[in-house]
Design brief:
This protein has one domain. With about 140 residues, it is mainly alpha-helical. Helix 1 runs antiparallel to helix 4 and helix 2 packs antiparallel against helix 3.
């Protein structure tokens, strides 16, 4: 018999799922910004500069940046948001007792552009279905 989530964990699962949905959306947005930044950096040889001599936002060669290097900020913020996303993925995996491949598959959401938006919709459907099944067994 496969492992199933515990009834006592249902409130924690719901809280984790709420945070997961928000982290998936925000991580997805920053991943798309990261892709855009990489196109500018490696395609055009320029980083995104904020509050530099060329205005509020400008594409500037990396060695000529005097303002805030927004490209570096996007890299760092996406990295930390991905850690939050992975943490929520891990908590859901652990509480719901899913197979490890599910954890790895959902973890791809912070690496493959657009996939986190898919998981933002599909994972809650799966989790809510499992919780409904669990609560139905109690009645």
């Amino acid at each position: 018999m496969p492992l199933a989530p515990r009834v006592s964990d249902a409130p924690r699962i719901r809280r984790t799922l709420s945070v997961f949905k928000v982290s998936a959306a925000i991580t997805g947005v920053f991943l798309l910004l990261l892709v855009l930044m990489m196109v500018f950096r490696y395609g055009f040889g320029a980083d995104i500069e904020m509050n530099g001599p060329d205005g509020f936002l400008a594409l500037t060669p990396q060695d000529a940046i005097t303002g805030i290097n927004l490209s570096t900020v996007i890299l760092i913020v996406h990295g930390w948001l991905y850690v939050l996303y992975l943490g929520c993925d891990f908590m859901l995996w652990r509480l719901l007792r899913w197979p490890f491949k599910s954890f790895l598959f959902i973890a791809l959401g912070g690496i493959v552009p657009g996939l986190s938006f898919f998981f933002e919709v599909s994972v809650p459907k799966r989790v809510n279905a499992e919780l409904a099944e669990l609560e139905k067994e109690l009645v």
